[in-house]
């Protein structure tokens, strides 16, 4: 069965392709599909985006649920929430994950708090994904960007008040989820308020076993206000608050006692009727994150430890679109941010005095960048785009204890470190006819090493059971990227097939260091980050969206495959195997029924040096249904479904510790929209 499944998935990836994109205007439809992958979030009304119903199965879906269904995206799972997004095998510092264009940096040395954990679909408008050089507008990176765009208050003099209330229950973890969102708008000003509360107990896996330390509880709230300064100018303010507590991470030796994020932003937009500038946006923002790991609820802990972390960022950007000059459409963005991070660890050995250590010494980093894009319309059937970005980065360890810790390892980090980053990309679009479009791109990208890669001090990695120390002398990681996209779009069907490759230089990887003693009890050794000469990542993706039978049926399919190796031909760690996600939806008036399947091949190309083990393939099937009642000015919707119908005992390759995922999960939900 497994060989047959692998063959089926392989040929499906060659035959089936697709793309489901919302287009704002008919003129730019194809180009927007090529340039970005933007998944619109379903708010108070049904999204017009043809694929959103499959990315977001209900209004209670989490951000991670949506991301897991998008081509090119995988998730590293260490617990039931807080999964780390991976774009075409690029993760962590290789990609930019931002919220509404704002830079964020996690406060956890064990990566328990990716940026995505601090948002919920109820406070998002869309998720904008760009790969490789197409994502450089959000900052220097080699793998692309993921922009979680916040929902905005809407000026609406006709219907001033609207909103949603929803509540749901999930059987696998006895989980309760509640959301609310209210919009109030006039012709001059508007306000939007949303909130989410999620709580789950330890879930049961496909073998009907309780998975200890998989519980969590979190609350999220956002407020967005908008004021019309003039006919062409708007002032907007956003506040985002996220709190989590008692969050279990069964694949790690510690849990999260509490995690807190506070975000504030002010945005000014102007759309002049004439002059050189057609659009202008300026934003100033601040965010503060505090994260505390906790092992007090774990049995038989060799030595209790406290491991808190802090991250504070202030930033601003100015983005402008110039009016078209002949065949040229030019846009520019100037951005800057300052980030301060610190993490420490206090160990409490039995019958001894506590021991203190900085795992992230206090590090200040300031980055200023300039991005310029020129879209050139060669003729009616051809376009060329040029993108370039330059960043100046300044960082310094200001903590004397942190400087002394690295001096013991032979590093002098008392002086500031200054770096220059260069990114450029070009693309060619060819409209072959009214149905087929071709887009080819190539570019060069650089990225900074992360705080852990440069300044981490004895950070334990559960995957390979090693302590890791940073290397302040790391070179910038760089990549030569190339991609090819072929799109077919006609009436009710859209298909896309993509191929991509990246040749990475100075690839950052951990290598064993002899002569150093471990800090973590039971660790197999100590590894330090270093640059290896090169690595290569290649892959292919396809997606399909097809509506038929008078739009009563919609078929959506996504297939993704990635291959990675280092300069010696060894497999790179954390590479997802071939995977296919298919959904078939029947929709008639107020009723819908949706059947889904997730098919994954096994992963046998693994990095044994980094503790990876082979993973078997799996097949998961889900069924969802919903019916909406119209009650004068209100819509009352009842939803129910069964996930993992066959109660499959499975895990995905990027799931740390090979912890089995939830077994059969029956859920129900009720929502009121007005």
Keywords:
674 residues; 31 strands; five-stranded mixed sheet; disordered N terminus; 55% strand; single chain; globular; 6 helices; mainly beta; 22-stranded antiparallel barrel
Number of strands: 31
Measured by DSSP, the beta-strand proportion falls in over 45%
The secondary-structure class comes to mainly beta
Q: What is the typical, i.e. mean, pLDDT?
A: 90
How helix-rich are the residues, as a percent range?
under 10%
What can be said about the biggest beta sheet?
22 strands, antiparallel, barrel
**Poorly predicted residue ranges:** 1-36, 44-50
Label the overall shape.
globular
N- and C-termini, Cα separation = 49 Å
In angstroms, what is the radius of gyration? 25 Å
Number of helices: 6
Summary, kept brief:
It contains six helices and 31 strands.
Protein architecture, described:
By secondary structure, the chain is mainly β. It is built from six helices and 31 strands. It has helices spanning 2-15, 29-35, 52-55, 63-67, 400-408, 451-455; strands spanning 37-40, 73-76, 84-87, 96-99, 102-103, 124-131, 144-150, 161-170, 175-185, 189-200, 216-230, 233-247, 255-270, 277-294, 304-322, 328-348, 355-379, 382-397, 417-431, 436-447, 459-461, 466-469, 477-490, 493-512, 526-548, 553-566, 579-588, 591-600, 618-631, 634-643, 665-673. The strands form three sheets. The chain has a 22-stranded antiparallel beta barrel. It starts with a helix and ends with a strand.
């Amino acid at each position: 069965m497994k060989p047959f499944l692998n063959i089926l998935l392989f040929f499906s990836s060659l035959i089936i392709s697709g793309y489901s994109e919302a287009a704002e205007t008919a003129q730019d439809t194809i180009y927007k599909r090529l340039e970005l992958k933007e998944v619109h979030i379903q708010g108070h009304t049904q999204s017009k985006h043809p694929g959103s119903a499959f990315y977001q199965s209900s209004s209670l879906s989490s951000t991670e649920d949506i991301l897991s269904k998008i081509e090119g995206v995988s998730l590293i799972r260490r617990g039931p929430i807080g999964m780390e997004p991976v774009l075409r095998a690029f993760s962590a510092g290789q990609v930019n994950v931002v919220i509404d264009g704002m830079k964020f940096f996690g406060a956890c040395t064990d990566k328990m708090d990716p940026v995505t954990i601090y948002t919920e679909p109820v406070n998002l408008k869309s998720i904008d994904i760009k790969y490789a050089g197409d994502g450089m507008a959000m900052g220097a990176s080699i793998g692309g960007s993921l922009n979680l765009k916040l929902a905005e208050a809407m000026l609406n003099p006709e219907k001033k008040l609207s909103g949603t209330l929803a509540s749901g229950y999930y059987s696998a973890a006895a989980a309760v989820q509640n959301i609310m969102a209210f919009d109030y708008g006039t012709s001059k000003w508007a306000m939007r308020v949303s909130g989410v509360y999620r709580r789950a107990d330890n879930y049961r896996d496909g073998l009907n076993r309780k998975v200890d330390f998989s519980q969590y509880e979190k609350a999220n709230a956002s407020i967005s206000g908008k004021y019309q300064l003039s006919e062409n100018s708007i002032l907007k303010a956003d506040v985002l608050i996220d709190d989590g507590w008692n969050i279990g991470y069964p694949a790690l030796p510690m849990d999260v006692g509490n995690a807190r994020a506070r975000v504030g932003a002010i945005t000014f937009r102007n759309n002049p009727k004439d002059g050189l500038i057609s659009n202008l946006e300026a934003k100033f923002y601040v965010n503060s994150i505090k994260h505390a790991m906790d092992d007090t609820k774990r049995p038989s802990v060799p030595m209790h430890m406290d491991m808190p972390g802090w991250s504070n960022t202030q930033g601003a950007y100015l983005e402008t679109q110039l009016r078209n000059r002949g065949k040229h459409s030019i846009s520019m963005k100037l951005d800057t941010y300052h980030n301060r991070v610190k993490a420490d660890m206090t160990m409490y050995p039995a019958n001894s005095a506590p021991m203190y250590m900085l795992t992230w010494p206090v590090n200040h980093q300031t980055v200023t960048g300039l991005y310029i894009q020129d879209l050139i319309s060669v003729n009616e059937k051809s376009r060329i785009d040029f993108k370039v970005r330059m960043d100046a980065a300044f960082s310094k360890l200001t903590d004397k204890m942190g400087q002394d810790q690295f001096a013991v390892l032979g590093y002098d980090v008392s002086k500031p470190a200054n770096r220059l980053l260069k990114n450029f990309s070009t693309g060619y679009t060819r409209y072959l006819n009214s149905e087929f479009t071709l887009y080819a791109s190539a570019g060069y990208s650089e990225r900074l090493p992360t705080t852990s890669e440069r300044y981490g001090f004895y950070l334990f990695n559960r995957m390979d059971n090693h302590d890791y120390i940073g290397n302040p002398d790391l070179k910038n990681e760089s990549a030569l990227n190339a991609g090819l996209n072929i799109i077919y779009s006609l009436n009710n069907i859209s298909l896309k097939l993509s191929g991509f490759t990246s040749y990475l230089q100075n690839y950052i990887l951990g290598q064993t260091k002899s002569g150093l003693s471990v800090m973590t009890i039971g660790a197999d050794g100590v590894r330090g980050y270093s640059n290896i000469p090169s690595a290569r990542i290649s892959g292919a993706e396809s997606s399909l969206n097809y509506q038929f039978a008078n739009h009563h049926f919609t078929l959506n399919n996504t297939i993704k495959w990635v291959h990675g190796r280092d300069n010696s031909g060894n497999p790179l760690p954390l590479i997802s195997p071939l995977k296919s996600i298919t959904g078939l939806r029947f929709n008639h008036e107020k009723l819908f029924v949706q059947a889904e399947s997730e098919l994954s091949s096994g992963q046998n190309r693994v990095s044994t040096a980094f503790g990876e083990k082979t993973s078997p393939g799996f097949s998961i099937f889900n069924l969802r249904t919903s019916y909406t009642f119209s009650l004068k000015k209100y819509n009352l919707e009842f939803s129910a479904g069964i996930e993992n119908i066959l109660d499959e005992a499975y895990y995905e390759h990027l799931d740390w510790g090979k912890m089995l995922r939830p077994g059969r999960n029956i859920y129900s939900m009720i929502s009121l929209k007005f």
